TrEMBL record:
Residues 18-31 have a biased composition (Basic residues). Residues 38-82 have a biased composition (Basic and acidic residues). Residues 1-17 have a biased composition (Polar residues). GO terms for molecular function: 3'-5'-RNA exonuclease activity; RNA binding. This is DIS3-like exonuclease 2. Keywords: Exonuclease, Hydrolase, Nuclease. PANTHER family: DIS3-LIKE EXONUCLEASE 2, RIBONUCLEASE. GO terms for cellular component: P-body. Residues 1-94 are annotated as: Disordered. Pfam families: Dis3l2_C_term, OB_Dis3, RNB. GO terms for biological process: miRNA catabolic process; mRNA catabolic process. The keyword Nuclease applies.
Length: 701
């Protein structure tokens, strides 16, 4: 029992020992496996760690590249913004003007074969202020100024200097390149910087819209708006006079209200607006200026008549329109014993009553001209002086006369000037004189009025004289006109002003031999011929003789004479008063007034040019105003019109019976007709297909 028990214990012990060894062995194996596994994990972790570091480095590099790209993009954006800002700034600011002295130097030193700078009077398109023009000598097309920025604060009529752009900036006009440019200097401001118009809302702001489309939009200060009580209830129907005080950016100018004119529905206010817009002073003269002037019923004294030739016994008469009030010229004609005629032209001696550079003379020189409106006449002189100087029949009057001796065929034998006293025996109207001419009993030579020769003042030596200059026309436009009329069977000789005048005269004479209906058509044709020819002509101007380089610059193209000036209308033109003074001092061989000089003569000439043109424009506007008023009262007028020119957007017509030019834009026909424009062989054609009734009109030019 005991042995068995011992052996059992031994087995158990062995088993336990084996189990322990086995357990140890297994544990060792496990530990080894665990260790190996751990080593593998550590190794893998290390590998993963190494891979992550590389990726991180790469990511960092990528991020750096992205940051660089972003920085580049930001820089580009900044550059674009700067460029856009500069571009916007350029659009919103004017180029810097060049000082007058510097631009004079540039003009003087430039190569004549490669002209970069040109000067002249700026003309702004009256229908679109975006386009302005400068005439170029010996060029078919004008220099084109595009946009308000390139106009550079210049207004219509200003004397400016422009820089011609590079050829790549030129534009195409009628199949050829037209030069463009930029104003670089406003040498003389001629435009008054005043305008008439109404206020309109523009977003939250109130802007002034000028009636003259050549003038930019104007921003008015709140102070000025409050001062004149401008509100939404009254601004659209009220006319205001605004003075432009500054022009800092192209979009709009800065201005202030100077005057409330009145309602747009009041024709008197409209008429007054025309005078104000053209800067024409028509206020009555004050007592400080008229003090000492003779009254209208003034009788001549012995002192007035002293040293004058007495022509009161001669047959002298005036010939004027039947509505004329100021009779400042008269004529006489007497048969001499030798068979020649003594012809006298006697002009009112205004300067006898108006001393040079007196307060009255200075005021008259500023006004420079009588303004004829449809509803009124605004005299250059005080009313009482007009009455004293007017050559009314049966009254003794002081005159400045030129007397010719002529042969029967109108050849001048001799001439002279004289201060005279006359008494007109008759006031004739043009139709009275025409009856005498048409009367067969008056056996006058056909060419009686064609006085030959430059016979009067060419022999007088006046270094600083006020002359009337008319430059040659644009031969390019004249040639185009010639070709246009030739296609209608009308042939013009444009070699000289004399040949042009002769050919036009031939067509005028044809109107006298036709029946009434044909006569009306022929007269209409003549109106069109004259109108088309006038487009090529330049505007005649007053000029100081000592400011030109050659005598050729003094020539008058239309009259075909070397020297010409105004003498016959001193009551209504200040230029004639100047000529009277110069002429008298020359024929009497006395010194000119001490203050008379080239500068003063030039200044007077320029002002006379401005006021004469302004008065002409005001008169035309006044006629248009009253014609519009008439249409409004009586309704539409049906009349015959002749087409002057054709464009894809409009046609220009002249209403011959009314003497009015109109522009008909095709936007007016948008819902009434279909308009098609085409050109073939230089002939423009417009097809107008009316919807009601279904009729097609074809207009060609």
């Amino acid at each position: 029992m005991s042995k068995k028990s011992n052996s059992s214990d031994f087995v158990t012990q062995n088993q336990r020992s084996f189990a322990k060894k086995l357990t140890r062995s297994v544990n060792k194996s496990k530990n080894k496996v665990i260790l190996q596994s751990s080593e593998r994990e550590i190794s893998e972790e290390r590998l993963v760690h190494f891979d992550t570091e590389e990726e991180k480095e790469k990511e960092k590099e990528k991020e750096k590249e992205k940051e660089k790209e972003k920085e580049k993009e930001k820089e580009k954006e900044k550059e674009n913004k700067t460029r856009k800002s500069k571009s916007l700034k350029q659009k919103n600011t004017f180029p810097q003007l060049i000082p007058k002295k510097e631009v004079d130097r540039l003009l003087k030193n430039q190569n004549s074969s490669d002209t970069q700078y040109v000067e002249g009077y700026l003309r702004v398109n009256p229908r679109c202020h975006k386009y302005a023009y400068l005439s170029l000598s010996d060029e078919q097309c004008d220099l084109l100024i595009v946009g308000l920025r390139d106009r550079n604060r210049a207004f219509d009529g200003d004397f400016v200097i422009a820089c011609i752009n590079q050829p790549e900036k030129w534009q195409i006009h009628q199949g050829q390149k037209q030069k463009t440019g930029v104003i670089v200097c406003i040498k003389k401001k001629i435009h008054p910087r005043k305008t008439v118009g109404c206020f309109k809302l523009f977003g939250t702001s109130t802007f002034f819209y000028p009636r003259d489309h050549r003038v930019p939009l104007i921003k008015i200060s709140k102070k000025s708006l409050q001062q004149f009580a401008v509100s939404a209830s009254n601004y659209e129907d009220t006319l205001y006079l605004v003075v432009i005080t500054d022009w800092l950016e192209p979009r709009f100018a800065i201005g202030k209200i100077e005057k409330i004119i009145g309602s747009t529905r009041d024709i008197r206010a409209e008429s007054n607006a025309i005078l104000l817009e053209h800067d024409l002073d028509v206020t009555p003269y004050g007592p400080d200026v008229t003090k000492g002037l003779p009254k209208g019923d003034y009788a001549l004294t012995e002192n007035d008549i002293k040293d004058r030739e007495d022509w009161r016994h001669e047959c002298i008469f005036t010939i004027d329109p039947h509505t004329a009030v100021d009779l400042d010229d008269s004529v006489s004609c007497k048969l001499l014993e030798n068979g020649n005629y003594e012809i006298g032209v006697h002009i009112s001696d205004v300067t006898h009553y108006m001393e040079f550079l007196s307060p009255l003379d200075i005021q008259v020189s500023k006004r420079a001209i009588t303004v004829y409106m449809t509803d009124n006449v605004y005299h250059m002189l005080p009313k009482q002086l007009c009455q004293v100087c007017s050559l009314s029949p049966g009254q003794d009057k002081l005159t400045f006369s030129v007397i010719w001796e002529m042969t029967k065929d109108a050849q001048v034998v001799k001439h002279r000037f004289a201060k005279t006293v006359i008494k007109s025996c008759c006031q004739m109207a043009y139709h009275h004189a025409q009856k005498f001419i048409e009367n067969p009993e008056n056996n006058w030579p056909d060419n009686f009025l064609n006085i030959n020769g430059n016979f009067s003042i060419s022999d007088l030596s006046i270094k600083t004289a006020l002359l009337r200059n008319h430059r040659e026309p644009s031969m390019y436009i004249l040639n185009v006109t010639k070709d246009t009329l030739q296609s209608f069977g009308i042939h013009l000789d444009i070699k000289s002003s004399a040949s042009l005048h002769t050919t036009i005269k031939c067509y005028e004479q044809e109107t006298e031999t036709e029946n009434d209906e044909t006569k009306m058509i022929m007269k209409s044709r003549m109106m069109v011929i004259n109108n088309l020819c006038s487009r090529a002509m330049t505007r005649a101007t007053y000029i100081c003789s000592s400011t030109v380089k050659t005598e050729e610059e003094l020539r008058h193209y239309a009259l075909n004479v070397s020297f010409y000036t105004h003498f016959t209308s001193p009551i209504r033109r200040y230029s004639d008063c100047v000529v009277h003074r110069l002429l008298y001092s020359t024929i009497k061989n006395v010194e000119l007034p001490k203050r008379w000089c080239k500068t003063l003569c030039k200044s007077i000439a320029e002002n006379c040019n401005i006021k004469k043109y302004s008065a002409k424009m005001a008169q035309e506007r006044s006629n248009e105003l009253y014609f519009t008023y008439l249409i409004d009262l009586r309704g539409p007028i049906v009349t015959i019109g002749i087409v002057l020119s054709i464009n894809e957007n409009f046609i220009d017509v002249i209403l011959c019976q009314l003497g009015i030019k109109l522009r008909i834009t095709f936007t007016q026909l948008e819902n009434l007709a279909l308009v098609e424009y085409s050109t073939k062989c230089s002939i423009s054609t417009i097809n107008i297909s009316w919807k009601q009734p279904t009729v097609t009109q074809v207009i060609k030019k």
